[in-house]
Specification:
- By secondary structure, the protein is α/β, with parallel strands linked by helices.
- It is 39% helix and 14% strand.
- The strands form seven sheets. It has a six-stranded mixed sheet, with helices on both faces. It has a four-stranded mixed sheet with strand order 3-2-13-14, with no helix packed on it. Strands 6-5-7-8 form a four-stranded parallel sheet, with helices on both faces.
- Strand 7, helix 5 and strand 8 form a beta-alpha-beta unit.
């Protein structure tokens, strides 16, 4: 493992079909950068009260643009506002109006004047906040400021009717139950780049291990399937095979997001349509808004897409000044600046999550980056070395799949931003702090600040329907726990088994990884389940692999 304090960029040059700045960039280069003054003196922060999932205690409100434009958005979402007001036991909607184009300091000033004014008890302020409008209508900085202590999501669409359609989708999902099993899908696009290799090795695989251990220890995940997917020959079909099912699911994907190539975008409209698409390497088609506008894709679930610009594109990048100050003769990271809006062009929420959230059979919420995405957010420095720390991402997956509201699940990830910001602020007052340490924390802070939740933060994944009475009852808890400890997954009678996708044929690379996991001590049944293959078949393949290896050693005279 490369444990130097450095990071990789998850951005692809669309017209050239290659990763931008695939070489790792040292965080020490950011040692001279100052901590942004975008969280200072917020004042009257919301308290961490009990029952964070309880809307009646936490309250729910809307933040909308000023003027007639905001009026129309509020009316389009009226059925959802009425439902949330009823759940909170309020007589009136809680609505705040904001001007467009706020930067961080302006957002903080707005918060003090209109939100956390000190006139009301903090308990009277809405912890759940739904922003209406695109980034040029309500700024990304305002959402970041409110997310410091709030549970904040955003819905942004291109037509007024789309807002009404999303409101109807959320309301239809309230109390909905579905057949099948809950699933956690961890998907890596193995495109051969350094960034996705680091992402898989230090984020996806450690997250799998954390979630698997939790499945063994806790009843809340015992009946949840854990699927790891993605081959060395990546195509969208691999992801569709796991995502196009009715089961409640959380999808956590690592890939490049598409950005501008050497010639830049041909037009602002093309940039808004294509930037942030999920890229599958130089030879496969990317997943774009057309692919997700209809058909099943994580229906009613949550998608965490780790990629550059996956949630949107800001008016200016938090990394822009640093990128311009780097030695351009050594690195091509400045190419990333071509993906930012040109002067006078507006920031925007990406087309991909817009389509996914609008799709009646798509996810109810989406988490992505509204800036450049680096590998820093899961590789903090411990001592002088970068270490894999994936737990916050695993916590998000676990919280969402076990029934927390999506705003609470997102809080598991964004809460780390507050910790890093506080540490960075203290280091700037410490003359003994090294430039390397400050630089890494600066990069980590900016990377975490780029995460954004799209969708109603009060929404939940659908629940599971109870098994029909005619089916055999599950085995007693004691026996189920014992079998789980032996086999690595919950064992039920054949009549009560969950429906699963048809077994698939593993590629050579996938099969080698699966065999290695079994030889390392994982149960063959658990490995087979995570790969969507038949356990008996995998066991035979492991036996053949062992026998072939022994035969090769005997033939070579080594034994």
């Amino acid at each position: 493992m490369d444990d130097t304090p450095s990071g990789n960029l998850l951005l692809y040059a669309g017209d050239e079909r290659r990763p931008i700045a695939d070489e790792a960039v040292s965080s020490a280069d950011a040692g001279a950068m100052r901590r942004p003054d975008d969280t200072a003196k917020l004042g009257n922060l919301l308290s961490d009260r009990d029952h964070i999932d309880d809307l009646a205690k936490q309250r729910w409100g809307v933040i909308a643009p000023e003027g007639p434009e905001g009026d129309r958005l509020i009316e389009a979402m009226r059925p959802l506002l009425e439902r949330r007001r009823e759940q909170c036991g309020l007589k009136e909607d809680i609505v705040y109006r904001v001007p467009p184009g706020q930067d961080a300091s302006e957002a903080i000033a707005w918060r003090k004047r209109h939100f956390a004014t000190g006139i009301e008890f903090r308990d009277d302020l809405p912890r759940y906040q739904l922003i209406l409008g695109d980034l040029h209508q309500v700024s990304a900085d305002l959402q970041a400021v409110q997310s410091i202590d709030g549970l904040v999501g955003r819905v942004a669409f291109d037509r007024l009717d789309d807002y009404a359609a999303y409101a109807a989708k959320v309301l239809a999902s309230e109390g909905k139950v579905v057949a099948g099993e809950r699933r956690m899908i961890l998907h890596t696009v193995h495109d051969g780049s350094a960034a996705t290799q680091v992402g898989h090795r230090e984020l996806i695989e450690p997250s799998r291990r954390l979630l698997e251990r939790q499945r063994q220890r806790s009843a809340e995940l015992r009946d949840v399937a854990l699927v790891v997917s993605g081959s060395d020959d990546p195509t969208p079909d691999e992801l569709y095979a796991e995502a196009c099912r009715d089961d409640p699911a959380v999808l956590f994907s690592v890939s490049h997001g598409e950005g501008a190539g050497r010639r830049g975008w041909s037009s602002a409209e093309t940039q808004r349509l294509l930037q942030g698409r999920m890229v599958f390497g130089p030879y496969a088609e990317a997943i774009d808004r057309e692919a997700l506008s209809s058909g099943k894709f994580i229906p009613g679930g949550l998608w965490l897409m780790f990629a550059c610009f996956s949630a949107g594109t800001p008016a200016s990048s938090k990394f822009e000044r640093w990128l311009r100050e780097l030695n351009m003769s050594k690195r091509d990271v400045a190419e990333a600046l071509r993906s930012l809006p040109a002067a006078g062009e507006r920031p925007f929420v990406a087309a991909l999550p817009k389509a996914a959230l609008l799709n009646p059979e798509g996810p109810i919420a989406f988490v992505g980056h509204v800036d450049l995405a680096w590998t820093y957010s899961f590789r903090p420095i411990e001592g002088d070395k970068a270490q894999s720390r994936p737990a916050r991402f695993g916590e998000l997956v676990r919280a969402a799949i076990t029934g927390s509201r999506v705003g609470v699940a997102f809080r598991e990830l964004y809460g780390l931003f507050t910790e890093i910001d506080s540490e960075l602020a203290s280091l700037e007052l410490n003359p003994k702090a090294t430039a390397s340490r400050r630089g890494h924390l600066w990069m980590l802070r900016q990377d975490l600040a780029g995460f954004m939740l799209l969708g109603d933060p009060a929404a939940r994944l659908p629940g599971l329907a109870a098994a029909p009475a005619a089916k055999p009852a599950a085995k007693p808890v004691e026996q189920r726990q014992s079998l789980f400890g032996v086999f690595g997954f919950d064992v039920v009678d054949g009549g009560g088994a969950s429906q699963r996708a048809a077994p698939r044929r593993l590629t050579l690379a996938e099969l080698e990884r699966a065999v290695s996991r079994v030889l390392a001590g994982e149960g063959a049944a658990a490995v087979a389940r995570s790969q969507g293959v038949d356990a008996e078949t995998l066991t035979r393949q492991v036996d053949r692999y062992i026998e072939a290896g022994r035969r090769a050693l005997r033939d070579a005279g080594d034994v």
